[in-house]
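Loading example: each entry is read as two labelled lines plus one structure line.
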Amino acid sequence: MAEVVMQRGLVRHEGRLAMMATVAVLVGVAFMTIGLRGNLDFVVELRAVRLAAMVLVGVAVAVSTVVFQTVCANRIITPSIMGLDALYVFCQTALVFALSGFGFAGIDPRLHFLGNFTAMTSLALALFLPMLRRRFDLTLMLLTGVVLGVLFRSLTTLLARLLDPNDFAVLQGTVFASFNAVEPDLLLLAGVITVACVAIAWRARHVLDVLALGTDTAIGLGLAWRGTAAGLLVVVAALVSASTALVGPMAFLGLLVVSLTERIVGTNRHAILLPAAALTAIIVLVGGQTVLQHALGGEGSLGIVVEFVGGIVFLAILFAGGRR
Amino acid sequence: MIEIAGVSLALGGSRILDNVSLTVPKGGVTALVGPNGAGKSSLLSLIARLRPLQSGRITVDGLPVDTTPSRQLARIMAILRQDPGVASRLRVAELVGFGRFPHNRGRLTAKDREIVAASLEQFDLSDLALRFIDTLSGGQRQRALVAMTFCQGTDYILLDEPLNSLDMFHARNLMRTLRRIADEHGKTVLIVLHDINHAASYADRIVAMKDGAVIASGETGDIIRPDILESIFGFSMRVENIAGRLTVLHHA
């Protein structure tokens, strides 16, 4: 009897997934086709690149947040607590400061991407790899990340004060997430990293279910906890670094998407949660960009819109949380 | 056989275990008793490799717990800690199913499903199978965790105060089940107990700890004696033979 009902539960989850996939495809089609005019080849290619970037970033942000929350056993945390986005903003500020806005714009985009990616993953490795050798507290490491984040933010503020107003405007363009100027080469590079990391996370979906039971129970069930957790955190760092280096910081999106997804699918099983969160992220990003472009008429920054709307939705979820 | 040799443990400068050596033979129920803070749970955590060994050596079935791959150990030894929180939003049947993880890495086979169903039945959970863990009472949740531990199907089972928050019916049911799997399937059960009469009734052997050291260990009949009990718990109590069972009158 139990078997049948469980099976039915699974079918229900899969039904929700199929529904979300349909919505995602519809939103994608809307984004590609609404208001299409002028030089079609050019416009379609431009939109396709943007769409691909949004799908990539959505998947990276969603998967990294789910995995990070599971490893940290905390459902209201985001990978931005590691200070990676603060480091990214600091690096851009330092570059603009050193090279001026003009020199900054002249950096080879591939070199720039790889530099940012390397800086962020190195920070994450420096934070998490000591965990493998010594018995280090995960909380302590996260706290280190928070402190480093504060350090980078203060340095950023300091440098930004010293910047020329024109340079500052250039900087503002890079530190808010935006899909308007994505290089196709970089898309490929970020795509390879993201696909590899997502494949690892998907293979680990059952392991993630066990990790979510708590450290002691997971070890009792035969997980090598420290190695597994450190490995997964490196995957998270690579995902966050790739998406941040591609379009800028989108940390808040993850928190919003995962909270929404958990309420939609009603399960913590990663086999459902991972794809569902990725689909939600795609819907939010592509839908948000479509609305921004056509309803609000602006070519503004989606990052700002997502953080504004996301913040309100998140508060609403928290206030409504009691009824569960 | 579980062999513990020269194990010490210090946490934040205070000594928790002091040069503990102990052998738990294969088969049968061994009860670990002693006052609060004696180091019983810490010793269990070390045997179950939940904590890294600081000094000494522990082997289970000849496998050193600090160097053997965790997965290999999970197939011969299951541990239930005191009150492990379950953060995930899971149904009872799903939680119990995780006990099969060391064998199937998350893909339940038909045989696994049979074992899960039997375990649910065994611990009177069939009616609760579809309830979410966070809607259960403390005792029901404890039974679900015990069922998960049993599902692991290991030769060695370590239980840290599993009777906590169980009612009399389910406490007796659990102790009888432990007795039965030890007798019929040759399992080795190491269980931390606070009710000395449960130990007296169901255990083959009793190991008594106090202040981080083993102060007595032997057959149940040799430990359930007024002088030894007084040295363990620090007050005198009568031991009577009531209807063929040693009974400690510790409430007077």
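The mean pLDDT of chain B is 91.
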